[in-house]
Amino acid sequence: MSDNQALHNHPDAGLLAAFAERALSAPERAELAAHLAGCARCRDIVFLAQQAQPEQLNQVSLASPRPRIRLWLTLASAACAAVLLAVVSHAWLQHLARPVGNTELSLAQHPSAPAPAIPVVAAPAAKSVPAPAPGQPAHRAAPEPAPSAAPSSTGIVSATYSSPVSAQFTAESAPPASLAAPPPPEPVHPMPQARMAMQKEKAAQQQVEAGRLMPSAAEADTASAEPGQAPVHGAAPPPSAETRSAAAFLTAPAPRAPANFVPASRVQIQNRILALDAAGALFASDDAGRHWRSLPSPCAGPATAITALPQTANQSAATSAPSAVRLVCSSGGSWTSVDRGNTWQPEAAAKP
Amino acid sequence: MDSSHTPDAAPPVPSELLRDLADLWQQSAAPALGLAQEDFSRLLLDIGRRYRFGCPQPDAPLPSVREQIRFLSQLCIDDLALAHACADGSEPAWERFMTAHRSTLYQAAYRIAGSDAEARELADSLYAELFGLREKDGLRQSPLRTYHGRGSLAAWLRTVLAQRFVDHYRRHRRETPLEEAAEPAAAPDLPPEVLPQASPAWPQIRSIVERELARLDPEDRLLIASYYFDGRTLRELAALHAVHASTISRRIERLNLNLRKHILRGLRAEGVDHRRAEEMMGLDVRDLDIPVRKILQISAAPAFSPAETIPAEGGGAHV
Q: Does B298 contact A5 at a Cβ distance shorter than 8 Å?
């Protein structure tokens, strides 16, 4: 035994080998580590023996830092990403498929509602809505929910210019700006409004680029407006060329009716076709049925029939096309419109 | 009576342990190598008692029978049977040993020695000793008898080779004795007023460093000694600790930060102003006149008790 060994009583080769192979108990390992910390000779032996083992054994411990933990972290990250994606997708789909609130419909459509969503020209005594200015038809309220809570079975969804409308339909079926009601009331969800507006602009831009810009309904309405009758958006000044262009952008043609769209009933008023689908929702087409857009219906529920009213005495007998229509509701009431469905009055209050 | 006495009047062995010893003999290669069950069982018991069944504290009670069984089950019983059968001169054992370990022995010697000639000399000398050419009291003297199955036989052989190489070349090559290497000189480039010895708090500073180093975990002290004094690479340290090199790197960094924090705190507590303390912490510990190497030795646990070291057998097998 060397002097060093006699002085320091070094551990035997078996213990040093067991230390390198981690075959010692915890107390033994701690005791041996303490000796190795102070003994350069034994450290040299341990490291030299470690280096002498085959390369593949040395590389096992260097292959991967805690592969199990890395695998767990990878799986956990993937799981979190999947959950996040699922949540976002679900929220997006929920937003897209969000139905129209019945509460809004009932509040909007009920004739006796203090602040009807449809600013129809109702019996003044019964309404608290300020009467429209003379010569000006009642404004259409903006947040017009579709008559039915669910999108129409025809696929054409109400293109109301307010809330709970699917964004993907809004851009394609938004009413012309000139026909648009005055600034809508406070939307329930401002964000969708902004998104809808952006999509409207984008869709309109695409239409312009495709060269399928249709004559703005605003211009058509202006042309066909009854004398003395200002456009629905009467408070606004006549649209300038720029406004008309913007209106045109915003009034991108409604999506084509699906192939299976068969109006349950229809009536032609001047250059507009008004039709009801099987669900009783009201639609209008200004291009002979090539494109359709939803119109707000005064009925609380689905409408059952739409018919042309007999010509009145003011109309010229030479005009064969009717100018007024009657809409019969499933709830039993009926409404009439003299402006091609833009506004409606209860038939009882309608003037012949 | 459910226990039996071993021939050397050792403490009675519980029957449960006896059954386990019999099972271990049956499972090992001992029967095929001609080792009797009684001899093998006695060997296992001796190993268990030698290492106190994994409980090194001499004043602590022996582990329970279940823990004793677990300790014995973790031994490399196949290698143990082979080594002792070879030490007994069993031809089948030697044939098996030659097949399994001869080439490994020479390859390890080459990796240790670095040259073919030295490797062959190293391996041949050990191989001859392993074969047990000498006898004492009718018993073949072989280093294989000192193998106790705590690690694999291959690891034991590599460690024995490394031990012989280190002892030989530490004796015969230019090697600095351990005591001389423990006192690194202070950096001569440093202005004297910056050196910690210039501070009146120098004795306290040294005690702080000693105290903080002594508080370290033994494996942390080993890490510091290996990395800073031996110049071991992260790869080597990682292979020893069976972790990735990045783990070692982070551990060393954490050790440094904690050490610096505690030493700085101690310096401030000793009245050293913040600026001077920061200057002192900016010095490399190896440039300081602090015998860190010696401190590590002093602060380490006492050296292994003589019972756990193997006395040299026949003047040759200094394992």
A: no
Per-residue pLDDT reduced to its tens digit, B258-309 = 888 888 888 888 777 888 777 776 655 555 555 666 666 544 444 443 334 4
Q: Tell me if A30 and B242 make a contact (CB, 8 A cut-off).
A: no
**Comparing C-alpha atoms, which of A15, A71, A62, A68 is closest to residue A42?**
A15
Residue A335: pLDDT above 50?
A: yes
Using CA atoms, how far apart are residues A6 and A3, in angstroms rounded to an integer? 5
H-only helix segments in B33-189: 37-50, 65-73, 77-87, 91-113, 116-131, 153-172
Sign of CA dihedral A38, A40, A42, A44: positive
What's the pLDDT tens digit per position in A205-256? 666 555 544 444 444 444 444 444 444 444 445 545 444 444 444 444 444 4
> What is the average pLDDT value for chain A, to the nearest integer?
65
pLDDT along chain B (319 residues), means of 10: 49 84 90 91 92 84 88 93 92 92 91 90 89 73 91 95 88 58 50 56 72 87 90 91 92 88 82 77 56 56 40 39
Q: A228: alpha, beta or left, given left = phi > 0 and alpha = psi -120 to 50?
A: left
Report how far residue A6's alpha carbon sits from residue A192's, in angstroms, rounded to the nearest whole number.
86
Residues in chain A: 352
Among B304, B310, B318, B319, most A C-beta atoms within 10 A, so best to mutate, is B304
Coil vs helix vs strand at B92: helix
Task: Give exposure, A178-214, as e/b (b: 16+ Cβ within 10 Å).
Answer: bbbbeebeebeeeebbeebbebbeebbeebeeeeebb
CB distance from A41 to chain B under 8 Å? yes
* Number of other residues whose CB lies within 10 A of the CB of residue B204: 16
**What span, in angstroms and rounded, lies between the C-alpha atoms of A341 and A323?**
10
Looking at CA atoms only, how far is residue A62 from chain B in angstroms?
A: 5
Q: Is A256 helix (H, G, I), strand (E, B) or coil?
A: coil
DSSP state of B227: I
Please report residues of A whose CB lies closer than 8 A to that of B158. Answer: 17, 49, 52-53
Q: What is the pLDDT of residue A200?
A: 67
C-alpha count within 13 angstroms, C-beta hemisphere, residue A211? 0
Query: Which of A29, A51, A62 comes nearest B244 by C-beta?
Result: A62
β-pair partners for A268 = A273
CA geometry: angle A76, A77, A82, nearest 5 deg: 95
